[in-house]
Amino acid sequence: MNEYDVVIVGGGAAGLSAALVLTRARRRVAVMDAGVPRNAPAAHMHGFLSRDGMPPAELLAVGRAEVTGYGGRIIDATVVGIEPGFQVRLADATTLRARRVLVTTGLRDELPDLPGVRQRWGRDLLHCPYCHGHEVRDRPLGVLGGTPDAVVHALLVRQWSADVVFFAHTHALTGDEREQLAARGVRVVEGTVARLVHDGDRLRGVELVGGEAVARDAVFVRPRFVPRDDLLTGLGCAVHDNGWVAVDPTGRTSVPGVWAAGNAVDPRAQVVTAAGAGSAAAIALNADLVADDVRRAVTARRDVTDAFSPELERQVAAVVLGERAHGFPTPR
């Protein structure tokens, strides 16, 4: 049967963590996994206690095995729509019914449109220094400008190496920004970036329009984060002024029965953070289901009690009197 207590859309750390908690709470759970994890290009993940350095795919494989071990169902499919109720529609026209829905579909990294960017993304074109900074420590690093917080990013990356170049690219530096970069020993290279130079499977440096090339072992960039929240907004979930779907600390959205966790609602969430958010959402979801179970049980009990109404009691009494009148013995 395609009926579940909770359908989780998204098979990453947040979704699998939630599924683990819910299956251990004896809930019927299905996880929809489209198979496009955000960190797929990365060879290793870091900062996850007890799993530091593990390949992302290995973490997901272990998580899926744990969930199915407790009776959860993993479905490799893409969800194309969720109707109020909740009817979860898959790309193959299958429909699942759920009492509650948790969306953990993550986000999309919108990268600069420059040659070499896609090829090196997640390898030596990096975003998060907390995830990858230690692995490139003390090496020649670059930070690509062009976003509002690029300077802050460069000042942060300086923590991992004394040799950091800030490529201004399309960023017009203010006097204060120049002073901060100079004070931290971050060299500024003016000019528009033309491409990332790589040789085989290794970054060599950054080439500017005009042909100048600056050798770098790794480059950091702040992509634009685009939430994969079409399912949530399609259900009418409220959105913050910043464009991200609003949730409470447990991941509850403004739509009853709908939760969200991980990068779909939190662009700052790392793998370990997303897993924690999934766990918190699962606990809140189960509490909400328990409250619903209690309401249903009370209603059912009242229905049974109402069957013995005063009118029914009078009818029973009339039958008993009639039996006595015809000589039937009184029940003992």
Structural write-up:
The chain has 332 residues and is of the alpha/beta class. 33% of the residues lie in helices and 23% in strands. The relative contact order is 0.15.
Outline:
The chain has 332 residues and is α/β, with parallel strands linked by helices. It has helices at 13-24, 56-69, 117-120, 129-132, 150-157, 175-183, 230-234, 271-306, 310-325; strands at 3-9, 29-33, 73-76, 79-83, 87-90, 95-103, 107-110, 125-126, 141-144, 164-167, 187-189, 193-198, 203-208, 213-215, 218-220, 224-227, 258-260.
Q: What string, H for helix and E for strand, traces the elements in order?
A: EHEHEEEEEHEHEHEHEEEEEEHEHH
Termini gap = 48 Å
Figure out the total of helices.
Answer: 9
Q: What general form does the structure show?
A: elongated
List the helices and strands and how they pair.
Blueprint: E1 3-9, H1 13-24, E2 29-33, H2 56-69, E3 73-76, E4 79-83, E5 87-90, E6 95-103, E7 107-110, H3 117-120, E8 125-126, H4 129-132, E9 141-144, H5 150-157, E10 164-167, H6 175-183, E11 187-189, E12 193-198, E13 203-208, E14 213-215, E15 218-220, E16 224-227, H7 230-234, E17 258-260, H8 271-306, H9 310-325
Parallel strand pairs: 1-2, 1-6, 2-3, 6-17, 8-15, 9-10, 9-15, 10-11
Antiparallel strand pairs: 4-5, 5-6, 7-16, 12-13, 13-14
Question: Can you give keywords for this protein?
Answer:
disordered C terminus; 23% strand; five-stranded parallel β-sheet; elongated; 332 residues; 33% helix; alpha/beta
